[in-house]
């Protein structure tokens, strides 16, 4: 068995790769870059969802590797993502791939927009194994190098949102990766979707309070309107359409869209999900 990880330079793939390497499971990391990172310890292939010429190469295992049997599907950063993703699923299936695990989002149901269309397609095929992971908002959105929230914490002692006093169960990428590892490698396919949530409901005010405690300085939550947040995202270089979509998702938090808890991470991995305090304590140095 060899596993292909698309979205090779994203948040989830690097964590999954570490788990696969530790378990000695063969895998290939795929990304759009035609110049694989020389610093990466992992086997890498070039892959572009929008370039069908890369499909065959990315599914060709390196010497001594078994054929690729399983694929981690990370959606491309485009609005109409379902057509290229389903096209690749069909291509990969013809090449012998038996299992697909899709990264979706907590608020996107099967048959909904974007990843929801791919979710529905995977579930409808019948002849393949699949799982769909639907995580809520990542804790790492506060800590990854180019994230706006990280820069605002480091440079302004502020976090920004349009979520008002809404609550959400931030989840760690490490926990998402642990669930992904199981769905990718378990002998019996899960053939279902999992909504992945952290262990506690928090407002952005509470996030700011936790960061203040960990960092020893006051971090303030700046409450924006949906329009103000969309403009902030657009000013950072995000396409207007994407900025408006993300701002709308943020606003939905104030309406209770993410106000829920479950035990899925514990159920699948037999370990409790990480708390935000534990995450912030570990990441303290990233905020200066």
UniProtKB/TrEMBL annotation:
Ribonucleoprotein is among the record's keywords: no
InterPro entries listed in its UniProt record: Ergot_Alk_Oxidoreductase (IPR051604), Ergot_alkaloid_biosynthesis (IPR019901), NAD(P)-bd_dom_sf (IPR036291), NmrA-like (IPR008030)
Keywords (A to Z) from UniProt: Alkaloid metabolism, Oxidoreductase
The organism's place on the tree of life at top rank: Eukaryota
Pathway in which the depicted protein is active: Alkaloid biosynthesis; ergot alkaloid biosynthesis
Any GO molecular function: oxidoreductase activity
GO biological process, one term: indole alkaloid biosynthetic process
Pfam families: NmrA
Domain NmrA-like: from-to ranges: 89-259
UniProt similarity note: Belongs to the fgaFS/easG family.
Protein's name according to its UniProt entry: Agroclavine dehydrogenase
Organism the protein comes from: Epichloe sp. FaTG-4
